[in-house]
Each structure stands twice: as structure tokens, then as C-alpha cells.
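Quick question about two entries, pasted in order.
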Amino acid sequence: MLDYPTEVCLNGVRARIGKKRPDMPWIEEKEDPEFMNYIQTFKTDKLPKLRATLNRFPNKNQFVFHSRDEANKFLDRL
């Protein structure tokens, strides 16, 4: 699970505006206020439910990354 700080997520969205992405068939031209609000409220509105769901599966491997560096180092080890 990617559990990055909210500002990191918001800045990532802003950095991708106007850039082509291989995972999206369109190019974002401006900030989407609804999506930015979703990111800003994610930790209070969605994350507790997500953690509760994950806690239902304690026997499964779960990885939580708090930075892109953590995630990249994990992927480099695979």
C-alpha cells in the first residue's frame, strides 16, 4: 500500500499536469478540484476503511510504503 504524505500526492498530481502518461489515454490539462479534494481527505475518509479491510487478512503479506524511495528500494530488491 502506498501511504505517502498528502502533500507528496498533491505535488505528484501537479507535476504530471500537461504530461503524457502510458497508463492514461488523455493528458490532464489542469487540476481537477474533485480529485484534489479526494487526495486531501483520503487519510481521514478512506484510509481507516482500507486499513480495516487489510487487517481482516493478517496471514497475507502486506507492505506499506511511506515514500517513493521506500517503494523503489523494495521493487529494486525483487
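Here is the second entry:
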Amino acid sequence: MLSGFMSAFRTPDLRKKLLFTLGIIAVYRLGVAVPTPGIDYNAVQQCLTVTGGTTGAFAILNLFTGGALQHLSIFALGIMPYITASIIVQLLRVLIPRFETLYREGAEGQAKLTQYTRYITIGFAVLQSASYVTLARTGQFFPGCSYDIVPDDSWLRIAIMIITMTAGTVLIMWFGERISERGVGNGMSLLIFTSIAAGFPKVFGIVYAAGWGTLFAFSLVTVAVIAGVVFVEQSQRRIPVQYAKRVVGRRTLGGSSTYIPLKINMAGVIPVIFAASLLSLPTVILQFSGSNPPNWVVWMRDNIASSTSPWHIGLYILLIVFFAYFYTAITFNPEEVADNMKKYGGFIPGIRPGKPTADFLDYVLSRITAAGSLYLAIVALVPTVMFAVLKLSQSIPLGGTSVLILVGVGLDTVKRIESQLEQRHYEGFLK
């Protein structure tokens, strides 16, 4: 692998792409430390000392922003508004025929969908930044902290803060697009990868403070989870496809054999993020319900929001399974695949083209998704079980999802660099 990296840096154009990507990531991490105008940075630090950091839903969002949210920096919103907008645009393809038509039009249609995603991202950024500024003004961003985070709450100052946070999200979106265009790998994924990886040293420091035995057990479980994630993410069910021979003029086309690779985890990390977001709603409702919340809100906080509650664990598993099937049905259409195979003379051995092929693909996909959804649930619940056994606080929100993102983005980036090396007749990373 080391020789592969050396070969990558010896290639001029690939070296430029790697250095460009690292430069954008460095600028992004620098912006995480720049506070938003109007925020009292010293007061924020005092509140972090008193409360120990953000909790509940804010802790999950803070993980994906690399610590920018709890410091209320210019990048406090992170890339989450863009991810939310992208998911909504994908869902609208099912509900609005116009979006599906644009998706099938090729490059021009994709450009329009990307433009719609940008507009929706700006809308979400404005709403989220206004919510964070309101929570900071009312003291609910850090419950139990009496320091005044926003000394000047005039309308002009608040408007400047909202515009600054929104502009920060737009800048992050631009960073991601530039990495995808001129760098290496998927820009948005690499920025999330960087944000999550930036918080791991602090986590290992907390575990180290609990003792060497706890650190060893924590490291052992982490390595085992990473190995399991790598194994499952690389696993696939290969459906054999045979193309019949066709005579076009004087040429004979077809007659080749290939396969359709169906991954065990077709939905990726999206089901876990959706499930965790829904289960964090009781905490958000509680923060807006005042000092004397209704009994039903207290019950949700103690049973649904508590990560060790049987209600929470059961709902978490059910939501992950549901969203795994739902998102897989959106991203993979068996009927469309069967029609394309029939159009080009392809068929699955032993299965008739057309509807029988679509039914067979749907049959296989439903059973693969069952295994994939259970795998996601196990990985997502490993941190909760580990913290309970090791008697640690919930220091790593959404730890299973963090591992999924880190491993998935890492594998994808390495594969892209390796493919570019192989195009230049160099050896890849993995021999």
C-alpha cells in the first residue's frame, strides 16, 4: 500500500488531484474553528466546560460537523443540509414524475436536479441556522449553562449570524463539488469522513482515561466491527446474465456472459441515519417544551430517547429494517433492469425475460435486504452494548454509523485511486 501511495504522488496529474483534495480539507477544518460573528466564543467555551458538550440530537449533528456545531462556528451546519436535500430529491423521484423524467434525460436532467438540490439546501440551511441562533439566544443550546452566548440579540446581528451560517453551508457544498470535479473521490463523502475522523482522538482519550483494560477492550471491539463492516460491504450476490448472439450486417454481436452485482447492503448508511434522526425527535421536543414538560413528553424522553431502553432498541431495529427496504426499493428498480436486459438480448439462465426476470430479481433483492438490514442494526447497536458493558458514558453518538461511513468512504476512495493507477500501468494498493 505504501508503494501505491508513492506511485500516486509520482504521477503528476494524480499528485495534483491528491494535493488539491488535501488543501480543500485543510481549509474546511480551518473554517470549523472560526466562530460566527455575534457569538461570544469565551462564553461558548465556558458552557462546554460546564455541560461537557452537546447532547441528544445535537450530539449526533455535532459528530457530522466535526465539532463545528457545539462551537457555533461559520460551518456549524456542516454538510447535513445538502445531504437532507439530496435525499429529498431522490424521494421526490417516486412522487413527482417530472423528477423521474429529468433523471432519465442524462447529463442535462442531472444538472437540473443538482440545481434543485442546491436551492433546497439553501432553504434548509436558513431554517436550521435560525433554529440554532434561537436556541443559543434562549439558553437552550447548552441546558444548565447560564452564560450569555449571544450578547447582542438585535435583529441586524441575528440576520448576520443566519446569513453567515447559511453562507458557510454553501461554501462547504462548493468545496465538495470541487473535490468531486478536480480532486479524488466523492467530495461530500470525504468531508463527512474528515468531520467524523476529527472527533476520534478525543474519544480514544476519554476511553484511555477509564484505564488500559477499557482501552484494550474498546480497541478490540472497534477493530472487529471494522473487519466485519469491510467483509459485508465487499460482499455481493452475483446474478449471472447471458447475452444472446445477434447478427448485424456482417458482424456477430452478443454471446457474452456477465453478472449483476447485488450488494448485501444496498441502502448504505441512510437507514441508520433516518432511524436515529426520528428517535432523536423526543429530545428536540423536550428542549422546546420548557421546564415543566407534559407527561407524554417525559415518557418519550425516558423510554424512546434513552439509548439503553428496550423501547428505543426495538424501535431502532424496526426503523432500520423499514428504511433499508424503503431506500433499496427507490434506488434499485427490478422492472427497469429486466426491461434493459430484454432490450439488449440479455437473460438470466433458467429465467424467462420480462416480468419473470423482474420477479426473480425482486425475490433475490428482498432476501438480501433482510440480511443487510439486520447487519445494519447490529453495527448500529454495537456501541450501545459496548458502552453498557464497559460502563462508559455515551461519548460516541451514532458510533456504528461512524464506522460505516469511515469504512465505506475509505474503501471507495482507495478504489478510485487504485483504478487511476492501473490506467497508468502502475500496481494498485492491494496486491
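Reply: The domain at 1-197 is CATH 1.10.3370.10 (Preprotein translocase SecY subunit). The longest strand covers residues 236-243. Hope that helps.
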